[in-house]
Amino acid sequence: MTTIDKIPSDKIPTPEDFAKASYSAYNAEGTIAVRCGRDGEITGIKIAPEAMKRGEKWIAAEVTRVADMAFQKSMHGIRQEMEAAALTEGRSTAEVGVLAREMKLPTADDIQNIEEGEQARLHTPT
After folding, report:
1. Confidence at 9, pLDDT banded by 50, 70, 90
2. How many whole angstroms separate alpha carbon 67 and alpha carbon 101?
């Protein structure tokens, strides 16, 4: 979930919307959450009490993995910001797509695949 997702779909997000954006990711169990700001900087980590029983190594690995997911979402937010700016300026989002690919900014499909992969972990035996 991102704060940008909360903006009505018929409204092009403004630079102010993106400036306030945050991007969160959760592990499949819901015991680890990481939030990043617009620039990918971690702005919050939550560790549920039941995760503490899993040990320090597991927590460290899980926080690192979930932080990467949140970072990828923030990079997708930059892509969305570039597309919104193009629309506001009357330019095509196709040219933004070329630049975004060169910058390796994830697409909405990439983010969906990341989230689906995380949910699949919940159903994979360990």
Report:
1. low
2. 22
Given a contact cutoff of 8 angstroms between Cβ atoms, the answer to whether 83 and 45 are in contact is no
Distances (CA, A) of 94 to 2, 76, 84, 120: 23, 16, 12, 32
Residue 120, token pair as written in the block = 């699949």
Instruction: Tell me how far apart the alpha carbons of residues 113 and 59 are, in angstroms, rounded to a whole number.
Output: 23
pTM value > 0.70 = yes
Structure tokens at 95: 């040219």
* 54 exposure class (CB count in 10 Å sphere: 0-12, 13-18, 19+): middle
For residue 69, the enclosing domain spans 4-122
CATH of the domain at 35: 3.30.1310.10
| CA–CA separation, 44 and 35 (whole Å) | 5
Q: Which two three-digit tokens encode residue 4?
A: 């940008």
| Interval 70-111: pLDDT, tens | 999 999 999 999 998 888 888 888 888 999 999 999 999 999
Q: By the 8 A CB rule, do 14 and 3 touch?
A: no
